[in-house]
Amino acid sequence: MAARESFEPSSPAAAAAVVVRLRQVAKTYRSGAVDVAALKSISLDIAAHRFSVLIGASGSGKTTLLNLIGCIDIPSAGSVQVCGQDIAALDDDAVSDFRARNIGFIFQNFSLVPVLSAYENVEYPLLLVGMAEADRRQRTLAMLEAVGLSGQARQRPNELSGGQRQRVAIARALVKGPQIVLADEPTANLDSATGASIIELMRKVQAQSRTTFIFATHDPQLMSHADETFSIRDGELIERRAGEPR
Amino acid sequence: MTPLLKIAYRNMRRNLRRSLMTGSAVAAGAMAMLLFGGFASYIFAGLETNSVERIGHLTVFRQGYFLIGAGNPAAYGIDRYREVMQMISTDPVVGPMIGVVTPTQSLVGIAGNFSGEVEASKTFLGTGLIPSDRERMRRWDEYGASAGYKPDLRMTDSEASRGLIGIGLARVLGLCVPLGLTGCSQPAAPKTAVTGSGGAAADEIAALALHDLPDPGAAGRMPQIDLLAATANGAPNVVRMTVAGGEAQGVKELDDNYIAMPLGLAQQLVYGRGEHKATGIVIQLRRSEDMQKARARLLQLFARDNLDLDVRDFAEQTPFYGQVVRMFSSIFLFIALVMGVIVLFAVINTMTMNVMERTNEIGTIRAMGVRRAGIRAQFTIEGALIGAIGATVGAALALGIAVLVNQAGLTWIPPGNATEVPLRLDVAGRPLLVLAAWLGLAAVATMAALLPANRAARLPVVDALRHV
Predict the structure, then answer these.
(1) C-alpha angle B421-B425-B431 in degrees, rounded to nearest 5
(2) Which of A97, A124, A126, A184 to mutate to test the interface with B (most CBs of B within 10 A)?
């Protein structure tokens, strides 16, 4: 399997549906006196409405890549376009607003706001986009129902199990109807049965909402659900593989 | 409740012990500021009341008297002072503001007691007054800060030669025992004790008194003293005053020289058979807040009528008042500064710990789309909330403590006072003080939270998310 410099859709139809476009993106960190290249000139396109997975060993650069796609980090070189927007052209507030409208995050450690109930955690992103209260309420309750947590709406994160917390995190990521949901090891802190149910839930929600899911994971279960897989090693993209048709 | 406030409130409760410690520092600061502020306010009110009872709010003098006339009061008498008083009382602007308007005559001279076993004389500073007007002035108590107990003035308008002297002067003149004064121990003195600058004149006073003055037996058992002064024309004059009692003046220099006498007696001594004038027209207003307005109007009236008159307020006449106000204000500022610094560091410490503990949460909500300003607002509101709640609790405690202290019946003798006054903390009556302390501490807490809040807002999202 030879490393390639670029993984871009070949057909014009596929190019039209691209939601993430990276061109010669590099990211270098300063570690003490040494510069560490986390990503080395990666170019890739990710198609919309897909279940895409970034795989690679720890330290390979997949989380860095996910952060750049999520617009929470800036590349040392190259360009990042998300949903057709060149992120470098936006200032910090505009990038924040862009994230609030277009990107949902699911974190390995759930990262719920501990002082908010499940309902309030899910509602939070809608507050950021200024949605009216009645609409907020309707969408939040619908989302909680979709992830099977209608009965736990008033409970705080510390009153929920790991699986329930991750369901709240999924609901929070999806409630605003983002174009992209980014998930970094979403099943890493869950047992295999709970992990499987979470994957199933995300698959189901993705099929209904047509949202693009991009994962960084080691989880073989999750890889097996991927529409396409990007393999990363030592900061380089070495393979793009389409998954089994579903 | 807005989301920011809700999250701030819940985070405050989440770290309850830490929030309590910080809130307690704010509450202690509020209490210290309000209790001392309440005490100082009561002192100010007491001093003002004491001054206004004695010398009114405003005094009209001849131009120049206030600065250089004390050495020769007779030269600065106000001509036709009754007409001036009438003009002031009937003025449609200033008239309704006035509670009492009364003339006063200042004088200096030599007082002598040659009637008994002790023969002594002493220079004195005298004030001629109208007893009934002074009695009305003594009842002024706009702030409820009067000392309460006031000894009988022991002077009446009908007793034309009855006056009071300072305890110190009574001691010098050997009148402690005849006047039955307590706290007026009298050391043994030589048969012919002559003190002060009046020593050389003692024989002359005695001689003048023997020739010119009425029989002392008319005054019954009260002792009498002879008062010698130069008239406005420079001629020596002497009158005899019946001493109705001694009155402590609080300041030894004044106590050793003070004589209060009926206005007529003072005028007789200073002006003899000439036109009787007054060195001052004392004006006591109903409310202190009218003082500057009344003063401006009086100056306007004097300018209109080409009167050579000046107006001075009680604070100018009693520098001690201003000194005490400045001293207590400085102490209050010092306390406020110390408390502010304590609150500042307590809140910075707490909010810095909050930011450290919630770094991952900051990264999460930043990733969700919260702007830097939103993070800054979140932590600033938390600091402000701790400050506001702490200040509210502190203010409530201060009000409660003030009520307890005020009901305890404690008394003390303020500097310059001769009698005990109630110890009170005027917190409830000073809403502006409470508001200022509350706002000040809440503002300090808010500003203190800004530092860690800025640090939180500046955190790179990926670094915050990596934080464990």
Answers:
(1) 135
(2) A124
Q: Is there a contact between A113 and B369 if contact means CB atoms under 8 Å apart?
A: no
Contacts of B152 (CB under 8 A, 6+ apart): none
CB-CB: which of B369, B373, B460 is closest to A99? B369
pLDDT at B184: 76
Q: Report if pTM > 0.95.
A: no
Q: DSSP code of A39?
A: E
Cα B456 from Cα A139, distance rounded (Å): 31
Q: Is the CB of residue A130 less than 8 Å away from at least one CB of chain B?
A: no
Q: Is A1 helix (H, G, I), strand (E, B) or coil?
A: coil
- With a pLDDT cut of 90, the percent of chain B lying above it is 58
Mean pLDDT of chain B: 87
Is there a contact between B361 and A114 if contact means CB atoms under 8 Å apart? yes
Residue spans per domain, chain B: 3-48+322-466, 64-307
How far apart are the C-alpha atoms of A232 and A241, rounded to whole Å? 12
Joined together, the tokens standing for residue B104 give 């006063």
Cβ A185 vs Cβ A219: under 8 Å: yes
Q: Which domains does chain A have, with CATH numbers?
A: 49-71+91-242 (3.40.50.300)
Residues of A in contact with B12 (CB under 8 A): none
The two tokens of residue B382 are 């938390």
Q: Where are the beta strands (DSSP E) in B386-444?
A: 411-412, 421-422
Structure confidence by residue, pLDDT tens digits, A97-148:
999 999 999 988 888 999 999 999 999 999 999 999 999 999 999 989 988 8
Q: Do B462 and A73 touch (CB under 8 A)?
A: yes
pLDDT tens profile A104-116 = 999 888 889 999 9
User: Is it the case that residue B112 has pLDDT exceeding 70?
Assistant: yes
Q: Which of A159-163, B167-171, B291-295 has maximum average pLDDT?
A: B291-295
